[in-house]
Amino acid sequence: MKVLVIGPGGREHAIVRSLLSDPNVSEVHAAPGNAGIGKLVPTYAIDANDPGAVTALALRLAVDLVVIGPEAPLAAGVADAVRAARIPVFGPSQEAARLEASKAFAKAIMAEAGVPTAMARVASDAEQAADALDAFGAPYVVKDDGLAAGKGVVVTTDRTEALAHAQSCFDVGGDVVIEEYLDGPEVSLFVLSDGRTVVPLAPAQDFKRIFEGDEGPNTGGMGAYSPLDWAPAGLVAEVISRVAQPTIDEMARRGTPFAGVLYCGLALTSRGMRVIEFNARFGDPETQVVLARLRTPLGGLLMAAAKGQLDDIDALRWSPDAAVAVVLAAENYPDAPRTGERIRGLNKVSALGSVHVLHAGTAHDDDGKIISAGGRVLAVVGLGTDLEEARERAYEGIGLIKLDGSQYRRDIAAKAARGEISVAPDGVYERADRA
């Protein structure tokens, strides 16, 4: 099987790495890739959001499967163009990808499917936004209705800040979704879908805020870990029965079947499980830890989803190890990240056992040296027999990397490793910190 992976980030590096370990995958190509991906497979400098360019490359390479990583190509209709060329593709159509591209659309789907989620209002101007904020009260949750690379959400107790974020969305012609605040720990669950059948992967938890203790603005994600030993035993089954399958069924009923991965962002609140958001692709950096633990060959799974054959696959196999990913971000991220800086120490990390580096915002300079090229530069993934050992290895690795002005959180998976996250045994979830 020859596979083309579309995207430039850490999620795509994790996907490429897993595909290369699949004995049934003979070749992997990536576009545009990054410096780390380019060390593993051929890369191609095309516009990943251009349906024609991606399709032409897939045809030229005669690949058997195209895997689309980020949200922007999906929203641009890249999957539709590839499918029209009769090439299997892992990733939903442009219409189905509206589950991520429009939070208002996702709320409508959840309402039709009876999916438990936060109460919400859509606002198109400041007056509507103010009314919604007052109706729900603090803490205020304001979400850009469109794609914002994981940074379009503001959660604050400051009403002025909430209104300012809403106004910034209105100023560029967008709407906002204002929701009630959901308490409790958060869970990320990826669910593979072929348009009918759904198959869950292992749950993970990520860390959105830039600073330790979940302080500061939201980012695309500063770290993640898996498994979640504190999660209720029946959580995955509940998400499948109450969230994923009803959503996939509703999309099929509308004539826009969803084939790809449905990312279910969940809060285990004091009133039960609620959906925070849907994404139409693998999350980053959760993918880095989930795929590090997956033992079932990835290529066959993604091909089964692309071809409507998920009901034929065997039960997934997982490593008993824990995985922790810590993201190294550039100076000034998430505002105006500093780029073009030399990255040192990568070879030292590769010499460690049970640790690997996944590149995100990296490139080569004119001398062929690896430099920073984005806000989230890379992630160091540590594996261990438990979370504490996995944390130790990840932090040992990231401590060896030198990038001027870089930053990373030192509390990824810390509370979970100490056993400080809990849920009530009767299934009514206790309020708890999200970290």
Automatic annotation (TrEMBL):
GO biological process, one term: 'de novo' IMP biosynthetic process
Molecular function terms, GO-annotated: ATP binding; metal ion binding; phosphoribosylamine-glycine ligase activity
Pfam families: GARS_A, GARS_C, GARS_N
Catalytically driven reaction(s): 5-phospho-beta-D-ribosylamine + glycine + ATP = N(1)-(5-phospho-beta-D-ribosyl)glycinamide + ADP + phosphate + H(+)
Pathway: Purine metabolism; IMP biosynthesis via de novo pathway; N(1)-(5-phospho-D-ribosyl)glycinamide from 5-phospho-alpha-D-ribose 1-diphosphate: step 2/2
Domain ATP-grasp per the UniProt entry, residue ranges: 107-307
Gene: purD
Organism field: Arthrobacter terrae
EC number from the UniProt entry: 6.3.4.13
SUPFAM superfamilies (alphabetical): Glutathione synthetase ATP-binding domain-like (SSF56059), PreATP-grasp domain (SSF52440), Rudiment single hybrid motif (SSF51246)
Name of the protein in question: Phosphoribosylamine--glycine ligase
Family: Belongs to the GARS family.
Cofactors required: Mn(2+); Mg(2+)
Keywords: ATP-binding, Ligase, Nucleotide-binding, Purine biosynthesis
Record's keyword annotation contains Ligase: yes
InterPro entries (UniProt xref): ATP-grasp, ATP_grasp_subdomain_1, PreATP-grasp_dom_sf, PRibGlycinamid_synth_ATP-grasp, PRibGlycinamide_synth, PRibGlycinamide_synth_C-dom, PRibGlycinamide_synth_C_sf, PRibGlycinamide_synth_CS
